[in-house]
Amino acid sequence: MQKWFRIMLAILLTTLCLSRAQAESEVRIVIDGGSAFARPVAVVPFRWVAQGAKNAEFAQIIRADLNNSGLFTAIPVANMPQYPTSAQEVNAESWAQLGVGNVIVGQITPRENDLAVAFQLVDTIGASGQVGKVLLQKQYAIPLNKIRQGAHKISDEVFETLTGIRGAFRTKIAYIVQKNAGSLPYQLRIADYDGHNQHVIYQSSEPLMSPAWSADGKQIAYVSFEGQKSQLILQDLATGKRQILVSGKGHNGAPSFSPDGTSLAFASSYDGKLNIYVMDLFNKQIRQLTKGMGNNTEPSWSADSQHIVFTSDRQGNPQIYMMNKDGGDVQALTSQGSNYSGELMKDGKTLVMVASDHIAKKSLQTGNEDMLTSTFLDESPSLSPNDLMVIYSSTQGLGKVLQLVSVDGYFKARLPSNDGQVKFPAWSPYLHQR
User: Considering 113, 160, 175, 357, which has the largest number of Cβ atoms within 10 A of its Cβ?
Assistant: First the structure.
């Protein structure tokens, strides 16, 4: 069996135990490369309307969010020509001379149980047709225990106002950490998209693999090796309740929820070879979709839940295929080299995948392929819900770390961790209504 499928069989062996304690060491975004096309923007420190020391820095969080998007460059506070706290105080000309097209200003008023946060987004170069125009103006009551979420909400609204693309700063990531010591070294963790607010959701003495978010973001499916057998587990994130979805002979793994919330695709070697199956999440009935054509694994869904992309070695080397949700009309999406871990972007026209051990994207219309990364032995790519970023794992030294790359390949960042190997990242769907 080829090396790739030996790896894939190993990936289908995983485990999980409930804990909501804060993890010992959080991953945090460290930017390695930005885009020359990123738009300069300024997030002025928000005015603190009260006596005494500040206990929150909204501007700093918003600044980091915009930088992390890959589409903006938030200028340092030290380089700002002025420090306005309202749109009326913004000197548009001084910002325009720096090439800064938009300025975010705000005020924070502490209250007994929350913070009243008001902000304005100002056009300083007249891109909207009017210099100094307020493009966005809102005020929120932010609970004291949800400071970061409140700042991310503002980032989402600013980002969508400026780009027309929904922001994803209030999403989360799930991933597996294999710790270097301890009786329960395998942990399933969840964190904010930027690595903050990390929590251990489950931990085990046996391997854990391949977390996948439900369509509503309220549950996670993953592979567990409890009892010395691979099984698919579904865990409710609010209650911690777990249930076994699939358990039987052979390897069971690579779960993937359909975006419409009705089905779960997965891979199983129940009949001796890896094949794709689909479970109806309402009645738990299972249908086998592939049979008699090599090993088939890593299912992922199209945005309309009508097609499944998967990896197969039916022609020798692993390649990426697509079929209807009932298993019909199979077509090859790749044919050269070794390609796997495919995921379609929302428009159905672009494929993100692992090609030659790097993250790549391929236009299904033109056939053009672009290599996005230069890191080592890249695995498990997962798209952000707005299709702007890819999170993946790569080998660094003797371990695995999480990496970020924009879909244009310009923005690159790491989420390093110092307490174990980090693998199998999965980006959540949107978790909040507009």
Answer: 175
